[in-house]
Structures are given as structure tokens and as C-alpha cells.
């Protein structure tokens, strides 16, 4: 109901409901204890981001986690994109931290699992810098540097996204089963939609399932192919990190006798 009310106000005022949420959470942030806000960030990022959404719209879970991060820290650094195999350096550089501060680093709000120097992480410059080595998809998430006295927290949003190109042409025989795979992967989990000759697919003949990376609707199939099924099939992928953009890959399906 709250979401519907915000959408109505958005239509009247021309303000997006995400902008309304920014205002609401910034106001609440002045009165809600920081530990409670931190708990909400963790829950929204790890649970609510799986709530279904329509393409090209930020999921409520991930959007809420970003908004709460803005409230909780004043500003969220990033987002930083992971390039597999390379290193990623995060710097905790706020002047509020004193010279004698002891900076701690955590990932995704896991207080019981402080990041330590090992073959994955380097703690540099008196722990003010975290170097994530040999990065991969599992390194995506929210990183936090913090100090208890004086109390300070700074967050970094790190994401992973990849989309491999489909084969440019697929040739099948009439009455064959056609199977198309969109090799998308990402964290936060991206959303996929399919088009044929530039139009969204809405026929009940099409079946969808998740790919090996657990991306919903990333595999498209249909039975009893006919000449009419020939055409250009496009997989469009939308990432929560860049909701105003989309990425795509296409293949031309040729149905022969």
C-alpha cells in the first residue's frame, strides 16, 4: 500500500518514488539508531533483492539497500565493477577518523567475520586501504570500513556483471526444438527479457528457465519450429546497478525444411 501511495504522489508531482524514498529515509536516518539501519541494509541487500521486478526498473531490495547506505554513511562510494582476475583497491579516507584509529573491514554486514590479511585481502596504509586480489563474481557486495571511537562507517558498493555474445546465426530444421541461451551473469542478479525482431515475446509457446548462473528467464525454448519462427532473437539484460541502461546480444534463427 505504501508503494502504491508513493507511485500516486510520483505521478502527481513528477517525482520518482525512489526520490520519495530517499527523502523518507534521510529523514528517518536522523532518528533511527545506526545499528538498526545497518541491520536493514543487510536484510534488504541479501533478501529483498530477490523480489521479482519488471525489466529496466531497480529491484526494491537493491534500491532500498542503496538508499539505506546513503542514510547510514552519508554517501556510498562506487559502485565499483569487478574485472575478474584483477585487483580492486578500496580506500577509507575520511578525515573524521583519527590518527590512532583502528580501522576494521567487513563485507555484507557480517560483523562476526572481519576481513583479515590473507591470500584474498591485503590491508594497507595502517588498514585504511583494502586491496581485494584476484577478484571474481563472489567478491561483489557491500564493503564497510569502520572505526568505533570516534564512530565512523564508510561503505563501498562492488558489483559484477558479464554478458557473453550469442552465436550470430542458428540454423534449425522445421519441427525441431529451438533452444536459445543468454549467457548472462551478475551480482546483484540481473533481469532478462527476450525480443523477436525488436518486439517482446508474449506467446504461450515459449518456455523460459534459469541458466547455469541462476539468472531467471535466461534460457528460451519452443517446440515444432516453423518458417514463421525464423528471425532475430535478442536477449536484453538489465542490471540494478545501472537501471537506466541495458545490454543485449542477438542471434538470427533460420528455420529450414
Summarize the structure.
The protein has 257 residues and is of the alpha+beta class. Helices cover 20% and strands 34% of the residues.
SSE diagram, text form:
Blueprint lengths: L1 H12 L3 H12 L5 H13 L13 H14 L2 E6 L6 E4 L12 E4 L13 E4 L4 E4 L8 E7 L4 E12 L5 E5 L4 E4 L2 E4 L3 E6 L2 E2 L6 E3 L9 E4 L8 E8 L8 E10 L1
Parallel strand pairs: 1-7, 8-16
Antiparallel strand pairs: 2-5, 3-6, 4-5, 6-7, 7-10, 9-14, 11-12, 11-15, 13-14, 15-16
Major β-sheet, in short? 5 strands, mixed
The ordered string of helix (H) and strand (E) elements is HHHHEEEEEEEEEEEEEEEE
How much helix, percentage-wise, in residues? Answer: 10-25%
What do we call the CATH homologous superfamily of the largest domain? Answer: Immunoglobulins
Detail the poorly predicted runs. 9-23, 29-35, 45-74
Strand content: 25-35%
| Terminal-residue CA separation | 54 Å
CATH class of the largest domain equals Mainly Beta
- From the helix content, strand content and strand pairing, which structural class follows? alpha+beta
Q: Any guess at the CATH architecture of the largest domain?
A: Sandwich
CATH topology heading of the largest domain: Immunoglobulin-like
Query: Given the C-alpha coordinates, what overall shape results?
Result: elongated
Radius of gyration: 22 Å
Total domain units: 3
Secondary structure tally, helices: 4
Transmembrane segments: 31-48, 60-80
Domain Ig-like: 52-146, 150-248
Pfam family, one: Ig_3
Protein name: Ig-like domain-containing protein
Amino acid at each position: 500500500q505504501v508503494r502504491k501511495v508513493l507511485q500516486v504522489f510520483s505521478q502527481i508531482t513528477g517525482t520518482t518514488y525512489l526520490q520519495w524514498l530517499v527523502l523518507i529515509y534521510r529523514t528517518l536516518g536522523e532518528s533511527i539508531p545506526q545499528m538498526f539501519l545497518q541491520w536493514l541494509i543487510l536484510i534488504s541487500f541479501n533478501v529483498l533483492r530477490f523480489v521479482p521486478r519488471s525489466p529496466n526498473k531497480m529491484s526494491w531490495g537493491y534500491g532500498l539497500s542503496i538508499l539505506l547506505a546513503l542514510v547510514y554513511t552519508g554517501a556510498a562510494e562506487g559502485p565499483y565493477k569487478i574485472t575478474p582476475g584483477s585487483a580492486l583497491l578500496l580506500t577509507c579516507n575520511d578525515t573524521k577518523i583519527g590518527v590512532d584509529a583502528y580501522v576494521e573491514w567487513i563485507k555484507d554486514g557480517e560483523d562476526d567475520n572481519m576481513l583479515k590479511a590473507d591470500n584474498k585481502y591485503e590491508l594497507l596504509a595502517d588498514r585504511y586501504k583494502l586491496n581485494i586480489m584476484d577478484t571474481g563474481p563472489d567478491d561483489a557486495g557491500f564493503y564497510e570500513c569502520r572505526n568505533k571511537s570516534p564512530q565512523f562507517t564508510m561503505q563501498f558498493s562492488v558489483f559484477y556483471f558479464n554478458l557473453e555474445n550469442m552465436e550470430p546465426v542458428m540454423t534449425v530444421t522445421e519441427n525441431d526444438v529451438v533452444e536459445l541461451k543468454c549467457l548472462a551473469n551478475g551480482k546483484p542478479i540481473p533481469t532478462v527479457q527476450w525480443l523477436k525482431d525488436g518486439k517482446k515475446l508474449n506467446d504461450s509457446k515459449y518456455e523460459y528457465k534459469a541458466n547455469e548462473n541462476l539468472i531467471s528467464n535466461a534460457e528460451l525454448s519452443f517446440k515444432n519450429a516453423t518458417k514463421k519462427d525464423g528471425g532475430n532473437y535478442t536477449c536484453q539484460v538489465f542490471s540494478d546497478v545501472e537501471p537506466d541502461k541495458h545490454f543485449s546480444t542477438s542471434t538470427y534463427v533460420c528455420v529450414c525444411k
